[in-house]
User: What shape does this take?
Amino acid sequence: MKYDPGTRFFDEMFTADGQVRPHYEGVRAYLEQLGVSEFERRRHLLDAAFRNQGITFTVYGDAQGTERTFPFDPVPRVIPASEWAHVEAGLTQRVRALNAFLADIYSGAQILADGVIPAELVFTSSHFRREVHGVTPPGGVFIHVVGTDLIRDERGEYLVLEDNLRSPSGVSYLLANRQAMTRIYPGLFEGQGVRPVQHYATALLANLQAVSPKPNGTVVVLTPGMYNSAYFEHAYLAQQMGVELVEGRDLFVDAGRVWMRTTGGRRQVDVIYRRIDDDFLDPLAFRRDSSLGVAGLMEVYRQGRVAIANAVGTGVADDKAVYAYVPDMIRYYLNETPLLNNVPTYLGWNADHLEHMLTNAPQLVFKSVGEAGGYGMLIGPAATRDETAAYLERVRANPREFIAQPVVGLSRHPTLYPDTGTFEGAHIDLRPYVLFGRDVTIVPGGLTRVALTRGSLVVNSSQGGGSKDTWVLDHDGPGQAQVMTQHLHGDPAPGAAPGGDPLPGQGPAQRQNQFQGQFQGQSQGQSQGQGQTQGQSQRQGQAQGGAHSYQQQLEKTELGTGQPGEEN
Assistant: This one.
């Protein structure tokens, strides 16, 4: 494997002297045996799979069109067991403190009275919702789903970049990545001890049902609609859980309950997994011009007759200015030392910090506290003088709405660049997904995002980023050599492709496909008979379509009767 890890950034796969890290030895051996040309050919199959499955995201305001296939690099990111244990413990600690913080500020606000966090900072947050002060959600759970962004600095230390508590997105791509990888590169997984991730949808459904006001309550996924950037994910998760995907127009309030319109009549809704912001949930409580929510929903919520996940008002805890105080929350509520450190952060509302931010702007990264997806940022070293001057005018006008952080050299990972057909280092981060309730459940791995633009530190898909499959091992490496032997030294089995991988439809690969399940297999069967309206069924179908043609594409291309990436 020809690759230069360099010495400026921490490389996930290689040490500074070019030695492969133990937990990557199996991956390196497989890549070397498969060869770059075959690896690249199979990458075309992945692109075709994602295209046919409609695995897309939306970029608003782009002249080239809004909907795009989610970019994916098939070189997996690998995390050994001991390393993951540290990350998992740190995330568990963090989410417990954040939930305690929300429960506190929407009741007695003791942490503010004790001066641990400035009250002004909390009450001036645009995401603080006075409408739910004094409302305790079922089980005292405010943040049912959390996506925390982690990076590794030049020394390899994991740092928390930010917390996403309102509607963290991306988990569908995590699941789709793994499903596609096990089909296209099945031999890559042999003997590696990779922990599974496909149980996420089952765990999410159990987590949601646990907060239902009544036993065996009805769960729905509330989406803004098919033009939302994460619509594929909304439809995919609803399908995987076997619950209804609804828009605001599918729900209504009557007699102090929330109801769903179905072809068989109305049906009471008990839990709403909402994927829309607070502002649009209820036009009677928030934005009156919203057509995405449900009129009267907040009154039913305040009465405890419907659960909303994540709870209304959670956005105050993922305000990028409040983020700076999470280590203090951990010490205050848990009496523990934080296991995961924050990236050093300067707050615009603090006069001393502001002066430092303005003076050292060319060396800092600025962020708007309420923005997400890579928007509202200024990367000082990459910005022009005019861009910096214009941005700082906004900071001076409203300093509360901005933070700044030093530029952190995100760790890099070998990534295949199609234009050169070579492996090059690209910067990455990691978004693990945490389910919080009676227990804490963390999917082993998460979504590794990769900056596919050479030299860029911005990994967001809207800014040119993509993703990788993330492996968490059940050991610290290397893989089990005796299991890998036939792939590394023996002759390929009859009917096998280079690298020892069986062809689709033959032997172990066929059994694996049956075991893994299809986008249109067992999960579709789960969702049948749920009483969908015609509109709901059509919306889910648009996100699920193409599975049959996808399988045909793989078989036809792999058997040599078609060209990689060509559509049928």
